[in-house]
Amino acid sequence: MKLVTAIVRPEKVNDVLEALYRAEIRGVSISRVQGHGGELERVETYRGTTVKMELSEKVRFEVAVSDDFVKSTIDAFCSGARTGEVGDGKIFVTSLDQAIRIRTGEIDEGAVTPVNK
Amino acid sequence: MTTVGAAISAGDTAWMLAATAMVLLMTPALGLFYAGLVRSKNTLNTFMMSIAAIAVATIMWAAVGYSLAFDQGDGFIGGLGHAFLKGVAFAPRAGTSIPQLVFFCFQATFCIVTVALVSGAVVERMRFIPMLAFSALWSVLVYAVLAHWAFGGGWLQAHGTLDFAGGVPVEMGSGFSALAAALVVGARKDYGRQALLPHNAVYVLLGAGLLWFGWFGFNGGSGFSAGRSSVLAFTNTLLAPACTLFVWFLLDLLRQRRVTAIGAATAIIVGCVGITPAGGYISPAWAMALGALAALPSYAIIVLRPRSRVDETLDVLAAHGMAGLTGILFLGFVAQLSWNGVSNGLLYGNARQLAWQAIAALAGPAYAFTATFVLLRLIALITPLRATQREEGLGMDVVEHGEEAYATGEGAILVSTEAGIEMPVAVAQP
Known about the structure:
The complex is a heterodimer.
Chain A: E1 2-8, H1 13-22, E2 29-35, E3 42-46, E4 49-53, E5 56-65, H2 70-81, E6 90-95, H3 109-112
Antiparallel strand pairs in A: 1-5, 1-6, 2-5, 3-4
Helix pairs in contact in A: 1-2
Chain B: H1 2-7, H2 10-37, H3 43-70, H4 100-118, H5 128-150, H6 155-158, H7 167-185, H8 201-220, H9 228-256, H10 261-275, H11 284-304, H12 316-334, H13 337-340, H14 351-382, H15 389-394, H16 396-401, E1 412-416
Helix pairs in contact in B: 2-3, 2-4, 2-8, 3-4, 3-5, 4-5, 4-7, 5-7, 5-14, 7-12, 7-14, 8-9, 8-10, 9-10, 9-11, 10-11, 10-12, 11-12, 12-14
């Protein structure tokens, strides 16, 4: 059981969601984040003030999956989020100690497996 | 020149000065309306297309547009006698009691807002510089020509077509040009694949409200006086959109059991557009009927158009082209000599009026569509009309203007200030 965290470009979010859906991965949380991953800064000008936007808008996906699904989750993120330019983001896979479905109290594999109904 | 001076009416001039300023407000109001309808990453670019129209259309109007529309010429186009404002001064414009300079300014604001209207078809993907070129050329090649036909003594006006405040040049001109522009530029990359939602419905409502306010100057000033036709048009500009709004509520209720805010904003525009050609020519009661009727065809197009492949993004065709066409034709039925002092429509015994309204409703759209289509194709030969897929994904605000509508300032590092101080900043490089 792993927690897959992926940081992707906001404009690729719909492509990623589509790829995850096709890979039959259903439980997803996303949040808007700002970060810097080595891409070139954007220069913006407001009246006479020029600034470098060091932080870029990104979207963070968090998906808890059973071990069998880790590979397909990573593949889905790569296919959905890749443009080939610097700034496409990162995927982090961490092990997960425990997962509990609040509604039923199911734990671990049962909690991260989608309900089929 | 005392006789000329005597022909100027201070009251008429005062109202027309105010009306002109009201119409100019419509362009930023339209920018706000359009900006609310797009995604947040395209807010500024969309707004800027309207602001840019003020610059390019005003310059082109002063240079040649006004002359080609309003100087004496042939039936198709005016002459160049007033190019660069030659001979445009304090003497009254023929047929009015206001200085020709005021007449020029008033008509300029019409040209500006019409140019801005067309941009609604191509937002979120068209590049800014080609848009400036298109706007400048369109204001002369399409707007000035149609304005000459309808108001400047061109063939439609000469044959008695009634168009009080611009159903042909402004509304049908922009609406059918928008359709052509959408076809040439092509759909947004995400069109039909993702939900592309308006990012701020409050902007849309406020923009529509300000447009309505400006429209009192637009229609109310199109009598060029503070006289009867202006008063009638002013009144009808209150009545017709209110009826459109109410009918739109009913249509929304029938279709989806809820009344929508963006639908309401759209209805205000449709009602104002519908009454535009008819404002000073029909009775208040008929204006209410026109407002109610105008909702139907425009609503139908707004429902059906997104199911097509045509990404005419902000529905300029439905709101302006279609509603303008409805108004132009409706006027042919119900124009009333007792109210307008000019002509009757079919219901009052003058079938010829309806015939010429129908001809205008065919010729105006045909010319606007064709000329816009060809013009954009020619510009595309010189420079690409649209941004790349990557730029479109990033958003036109950052790509075209290097600004964001909703910059938080987080992560922004000062590079230089107005004082010119260059600040060495350690920045992580790739």
